[in-house]
Description:
Number of helices: 10
Largest sheet: 7 strands, mixed
Strand content: 15-25%
Bound molecules: glutamine
Radius of gyration: 20 Å
Distance between the termini: 62 Å
Helix content: 25-40%
CATH architecture of the largest domain: 3-Layer(aba) Sandwich
CATH class of the largest domain: Alpha Beta
Shape: globular
Strand order of the largest sheet: 5-4-3-6-7-9-8
Order of helices and strands: HHHEEHEHEHEHEHHEHEE
CATH topology of the largest domain: Rossmann fold
Number of strands: 9
Number of domains: 2
Structural class: alpha/beta
Amino acid sequence: MHKCKWILKKNIDGKYILKCIKLAKKRQKGIPIQYILKNWEFYGVPIKLTKGVLIPRQDTEKLVDVALKIIKKNDIILELGTGSGCISAAIAKNIKNVKIFAVEKYFKAYSCAKRNLKNFKNTVSLIKGDILNEKFASKFENINLIISNPPYLTKKDIENMQLELKFEPKQALYGGVDGLDYYRKIAKIYKNSLKKGSHIVFEISHSGRFAVEDILKYNGFSNIQTYKDLTCKDRVVVGKI
Ligand code: GLN
């Protein structure tokens, strides 16, 4: 407490100092700052957060950048695994006259996305569903763009992950032994949901580029392009069908 004396001298209410100390202790335990503040910003959009929901990353802003360059007026967009809803919210904020379907399976993330997408109700429809379910996938037709930041950490990544990551939901991070389960499944079961000439835009692990490119080629996608994030790491793969 003695270190806070200077603050006390400036007549700041003691209860705020205690609150600060309580929050600092949480951070000391490794709890990510985003869960402590319960708020974060993504692509200029304020995002509410709770534990159990993947924290929006700056890397993912590249995914939005790439998508916004492809999306055209009146496009129908499908976001698979929306989590906090940050990607759909960022697209909706930046481009008018599109329709977005944002899908989420897990209750905590779904509830969180509902709050974050409240201001974009006219553009984004939030759907509770299992993105890996083939019957569910077959309901989508004539989509102009599929976008997804799927779980892509490998078994090894999970075993060696830093403390902060352990507070995030494993189901939003773990992509199977080689981190590619979601790419294989999504490319296979949603390729028929896309209108001819449309795009799929994936966030990838910086080491996943060639594997994801191959998965897309195998499933009939062409014009495959990979983009780097701000740290010059491969981060986004796009394919056209
Ligand atoms: N980019 C996240 C990380 O490296 C992982 C998110 C994901 O699996 N989609 O921590």
